[in-house]
Every structure is written in structure tokens, then in C-alpha cells.
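User: Okay, second chain of the day. Same drill as before: sequence in, C-alpha cells out.
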Amino acid sequence: MSLSPEVVIIADDLTGALDASAPFAERGFRPVVVPSFALESTAQADVAVLCSDSRDGAGGRARGRIAAYGDWIRTVNPRIVGLKVDSLLRGDPVGDLEVLLRASGRSGPILIAPALPRQGRTVVRGRVLVDGISLERTEHHSACVARGVAEAILPPGRARTHFSIRDIRSPGFQRRLRAGSGGFVVLDAETDQDLDAIVAAGLAIEQATWVGSSGLFSALARAVRRSEKRLARAATLSSENLLVVAGSASSATTRQLNTLKASGLRLHGVDPVEPTRDIAARVRHDLSVDGIAAIHSIRVRASAGALSAEHAARLADVVADLHDIVDGLVIVGGDTTQRVFRRLGVQSLIVTSALFGGATLGITRPAPGISFICKAGSFGDDRTLVRAVESLRAQKRTP
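Assistant: Same drill. C-alpha cells below.
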């Protein structure tokens, strides 16, 4: 980075990075998301969100990135350092946290609050609930969710302090948190107000490391005062040829695609067996006639709402084949988002605002860039993709 940021967040996947950065854009900061494949990006930022891609299981490579990010954090010494983890405890947060703490040298407590209330994901008695149901009993279950937050995120054998929702809502919470300000602290939360209380107490503690989902970073964005030195905010571009890329097999994405189809948009299935040029030719025709098209994978794994790497890569191949005509993208799914931007040669992402359903609006760099809206596959209601298309088309072109 060519400007020392006030806030640095390391995120485990690209959609998570975008989701964590958007609340800062809403409050006048200039957040820049740096994908894992663009470690040497020189984009200016006062909030830097660095993607490790540890969610996809890229163990050694991801930990090497986090170690490099941690070394940089030690050098620039930002006011706030955070590790963005998945609200459903997917990925390898234990490994991510170990490497970050060792490399960054942060000496304060590690405040762990993965709740994401706006998506119905809460933490009660140290365990994640989704709409009030234990995580292991939902479609989002994975290998690690039968354990509590501490076991899923803390390095083995580390002692921790736990604050319940009752503790957080009690008058003496801030004093108690500051008094015991050391080591690992697991914090329950059911509402954004709970997260606000956690942030208000934690900001008074020097050298804290914040660990949580985008819910925690939204609370931080609400609380952190901006410095006087500001960077100009980037504007998005209008989109004349808009492509929707659905790279998730989650039930939420399936419903959103069905609603998009019902609105009159033709969906193009992408099969890894069919040549990319043939798929792209059909999509190009729709773009030239209607100015909009949508692609999605037609062969997905039936579990966990995840695409295989092969399917995500094929979606990215189709987008790359259409790069000369597409000037707006709506992308669903973290791995697909990462692969699409890599194929397009993106070096950084300037986030301009948070939208509905966990969606994020921004523009790619280098200039002139492509306007985009991205979101995680499991986020949003049935009309989220329809609204994303409407929002991107409503953007005004920069003079």
C-alpha cells in the first residue's frame, strides 16, 4: 500500500473481504480490497482489507500470505487490526489466527465475536445459531461446527475468557472487559447493539486484535472516528452490458436465480464439458440484444452449497472470454469472485457502498475499471439478484 491505512483487516475469502469493507465506505472511508493474487497492489486506502483465500483450504499458500500481511501490519502499525472469519465457522480460523498473531506482534487481547445478526447468525453460550437453530442442524453444517466458537477459532490449549449476552448487557461490562484485557476473549452477541457494546469497550484497549464476521466490522465502522486526512472516494460506472455470474449452489442462490428467471432474464448453464467459446457465444448474443445475461454452473456438488474449483474456474473462463463487451458484473460466491477478478487482471477493488442482503458495490482497478456487485452465496432474500441488477444499472457514469 502506498498510504499507511488506519484499519487493516485480513479476510478468509474475497466476498467476505468485500462485506467487511463496505460499512467503512458508508461512513466516508476509502476501503480498498486487495485480492490474494495481487499482494503487491499499490492502491491507496485508509481501510485496507487483504484477502488470504484460506477458506478454500489453500493451507500453506494462505498462511504464507497472512504471514506477509502480518509483517506489513507490524511495519505500518494501524489503529485497528482485524481477522475477518466466516460467521458459520468454515475455513481454518485457528491457523489464520495463529499466523497473524505471530507475524504482527500485536500485544493486546484477542476479541472474538463472530455473530452476524442481520443474517440471523448469533452466538449464545459460545455457540453459533442460525435463525435460532444450532449450526450443526442447518444446511450450513461443516466439519468444525459441532464445536463451540472457542474450539473453532482459538489455537489448541489456549485459555480464554467468555462473556455471555447477559454480561455484555450489564452496566459493568466495559469495566470488566478492560480490567481483564489480556489473552483470548469469546463474546456472545444476538443483536447489532450487542456488537456495538463490545466495540465500545474494546476500542479503549490498546493493541487489541478483532476477530469476527462482517457484523463485528460493521460495528467498528460505526464507532471509529475518521482522521482529518481523507482520500477521494471513487465513483462506480454505469453498466450498459451487465453479466450476472452465479457461483454458488446454496439454496438462497437457487431461489434468487429462479426469481431472476421469472423476471424475464434467460439463464445460461455452464457445463465444464462444453467448450467455453460456445457458451460465450450464446451469452454474447444476449448481451448484444438485451444488454444483460446470466450464467451459472449446471453441475454442482449437492452438499454445503459449494462449487468445485473446476466449476468456478469455468465460470471465470466464460467471463474472461466476454471481457471486451461486459462493463458490469454481479457475482455470487467467494471462490467464483476471486477467480473472475483474477482472470480479468484486477489488482484491487475500490468499495463504494454496502447494499441489501450482504451485497457490496464497487469498481475494479486498474482504471477505467468495471463496476461490480458481489455477495456471498448464502446471503440475501429471493429478490436480491433482481435488485442487484437494478442497482448496478442505476449507477451514474463518472464524468
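The longest strand covers residues 348-354.

User: Thanks, on to the next one.
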